[in-house]
Request: fold
Amino acid sequence: MRVAVTGATGFVGRHLVERLLKDSHEVTIVANRRSGAKLFSDRVKYARASVHNAPDLQEAFSDCQAVFHLVGIIAETRKNTFKTTVEEGTKNVISACRHNNVGTIIYLSALGTSAEAESKYFATKWAAEQSVKNSGLNWTIFRPSIIYGRDDGFLAMMSKIIKLSPFVPIFGDGKYKLQPVYVGDLVDAMAKSLAIKECQGETIEIGGAEPLEYVEIINSIKKALKRKRMNLFIPMAVIKPVAVLLEKMLKPSPLTTDQLIMLEIGSVCDLSKMKRLFEIDPVGFDEGLKKVLEN
Reply:
């Protein structure tokens, strides 16, 4: 099957493309820069397009039967906002799918998305989900917890801090719970969903084997790296004004109020649908760390 992947050169996108190629799909990677195509040599078709440009997307999807839509941002820039990139970008992707009679769209959303979301990130993910559901296409929505793996953002950043700093900053009490999902499990489920009819019209939560407090996650990373570091707890009342100031000064900001809101909310899920549909026994966090750090 010919499938297109938006955000193909990002962290999840790179792993998903490799998984789709393993299943012998013909893959069109949709990216802004030609350099992205070099990641996969001549094994893929490259289409230069942006989610902000509907005509370019129409050309990119011209011979595709399905589209995996992964494009998203975790912090706004002066050019790219949550609304223009996540919400309006998704509408452009859907429009291009309709133009080319693409039958299926598989959308990567986020765990915690809801109609009452406090964060702008979650609110625009919810709006994008509604566009997908009302698209008239066959659709599947994936809502993962925090994703980690080789060349990710979170684990790479925390590993660097742990290696270089005598202490590890933890915002708030660190007791908010996350369910880190190994990227291999996520892309395995996404790739399998193409052939599973029961996935159509489903919103599927994806997480790791167990919920963990944030401080437990940090301590596991320290143990895996064999580094003894002190945890420095910074009250939310102290760090939130810092985030507001950083957002005013820097675009994108290294820390945002949105990210702090999402941390406090936590990110845990029910794995029953994931296990039933895909027969995946998700990797535990400690086991996943070994997979990543050994590579």
Remarks:
- The CA atoms of residues 4 and 28 lie 5 Å apart.
- The domain at 2-147+181-207+269-282 is CATH 3.40.50.720 (Rossmann fold).
- The longest strand covers residues 138-144.
- The two ends are 30 Å apart (CA to CA).
